[in-house]
Structure formats: structure tokens, C-alpha cells
Amino acid sequence: MLIIGIILFGLLVGAAAQLVVGRSRTGIDWTLAFVAGVGGSFVGGLLISLLAGDGLELRPSGIIGSLAGSIIVTAAWSAWKSRSRQA
Asked: For residues 37-69, b (16+ Cβ closer than 10 Å) or e, as one string?
């Protein structure tokens, strides 16, 4: 159940990150949403939770960190894709 929860949470956070970055004009790329959500959640959520002193429990600081990490991953991916199209 935990793995299914992580996947669903990653998809939701990744989709939200695409909405924030503005990449969703052409629709949500669910592969990017999954990668950005899970990767950003792991890195951002873990980092913010540990910095806030919450440990590894589910806290609001970890959720905010997950969204921030996903936004960074999505923005970096968008910048990389636009740069590779120009070349």
C-alpha cells in the first residue's frame, strides 16, 4: 500500500508542479509528472523535513518540500528541453 501511495502522491505533486511552472498548456505529461513528483518528493521532502527537524514522518514541511522539489525538477526539465530544441 505504501508504494501505491507514493506513486499516487508523486503523480499529484508532479502534476501540480507542471501547473505552477506553466508547462500544462499542452496538457499534463504524466511521465514527467511521475518522475518529477517522485524525485522531487524524495529529495525536496526529505531535505525540508530533516532541516525542519520533523524527521522522516509525514508533516506539512515535507509536503511543501515535495512540491518545491518537483517544481525545480519540472523547471529544469523544461529548460533543458527548450535548449535542446534550439540546437
From this structure: bbbbbebbbeebbeeeebeeeebebbbebbbbb
Give 33's contacts (C-beta < 8 A, 6+ positions apart). 10, 11, 14, 15, 17, 18
| Residue type for position 59 | R
Q: Which three cell numbers stand for residue 1?
A: 500500500
The pLDDT tens digits of the residues spanning 53-87 come to 766 666 666 678 788 888 888 888 888 888 877 75
Helix count and strand count (H, E) for the chain: 4, 0
Neighbours of 87 (CB within 10 A): 4
Distance CA 17, CA 5 (A): 18
